[in-house]
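Handout, page 2. Input:
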Amino acid sequence: MESVYYPETFAQLWLRICIGQDGAGIKNLSVNIAELNKVVRSKGFLKYLKNTSWLMGGRITQMGVSFLVTAKVGKYLGADGFGALGYSRSLGMLFLVFAGLGLQQIVVRNLIKDRANERKILGTALILRFLGAVAAFLAYFVLSFFLPDDQVSVYLTYLVIASGVFQALDVFDYHFQSTVQAHFGVKSRSFSTFAFAFLQLFLVVIEADLIWFGWAFFIRNALVGIGQFVWFTRHFERPYDLSWDTSHARNMLIDGWPLVFSGMVVMVYMKVDQIMIKQMMDNVAVGYYTSALRFSEIWFFLGPVLASSFFPAIMNAKEKDEKLYLERLQNFYNLNVWVALAISIPMAVFGPWFLQLPFLFGEKFAPAGPVLVLHIWSLVFVFLGAASSKQMIAENLQKITLYRTLLGALVNIALNFVLIPYMGIRGAAIATLISQAVASYLGYLISRKTWGTFIMQTKALTFYSLFEKLLKKAK
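Output:
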């Protein structure tokens, strides 16, 4: 099996270049640069670097476009309308997580380990995803009769959930993820993002009603799914030769059910705050809170992107060398903390000011500033959670993911009940931060099997590896 250099060791290489392997300093510079050049020219390194570049570049572009357009939509709809739209999307996303059946990581893992049965794996996953989408729609149809929501909110939520039929086509992107060819999925999502942005701006210009922004979201997801299907048919030999396999389906559901519920629980503690603010306060408060989350959650994608891009490398290391596997995991946790802090610190300082700029949400959304300062720190734990979820998949500990996320959701709901009446939307932000820390970090204390994960995350949070290397160099 090809040995693949893992990019998390960039920090180690940088230290060796700066101070030398044996502390000799600049005299070893040429040797270390030669070592670095050898690494960056390797096929494995370039393969994963290209894949990550496509994922990161595509998502950053989508992030920028979506954020600017969302700000325009927020200003047009006002806090009330923007809050109603945010509430419906949050509620709908809970059902879309169920529709996914927790298959993404399971299917990618299975494709990597069993390439010979790829057509059966993809065909089975596709049918399961369609069935999950239908089940999610029917579940909300029943639940809607018991919710105190107005007719517009119900209709908007229906549109979000119905788009899950097209999200089932994401199965074709699983193939590209497993083969480290992320650029195909990025192209599809980028096109749909620009189309979605143009459509929303058009709706603002013609002063369309709120309901049409729900249809725009539906169209966006339809374009993403259709795009994934088109790329797959163009780059996969005999693309329609997929088949159903009952044994694969059973194994996927068995392996995936903890991820289904953990995914739903994750959505609960990420979205329940908006739902509870709507029920305990009003749409205006939801609008302020949602605008702050747009600044904060827009960065959440980076953790899963890094984890998804390098999941094959982690799996390869586990199959080859346990020591190498653990080393890559520690380096990966270190990297996630550094990246998260590099974003959180400037956002906490300058974010409230940016939020009020005229070309973004404007001064009317000033109450969202304190929420952003609190909520942005949850980014550190979101990144650690994304990385550790991959470790749980690699070690077949999906049930641990369910338990820790369930714990985080319960903490979030309880804290929201206590803090929102006294602190308003700032209380909801504090509840989210604490629950993220519980679910993605402290939750690994619940099982002896994951104490090692807790220790690695603690080392990353305390910069243990960096200080350890600096102390060795000082000697």
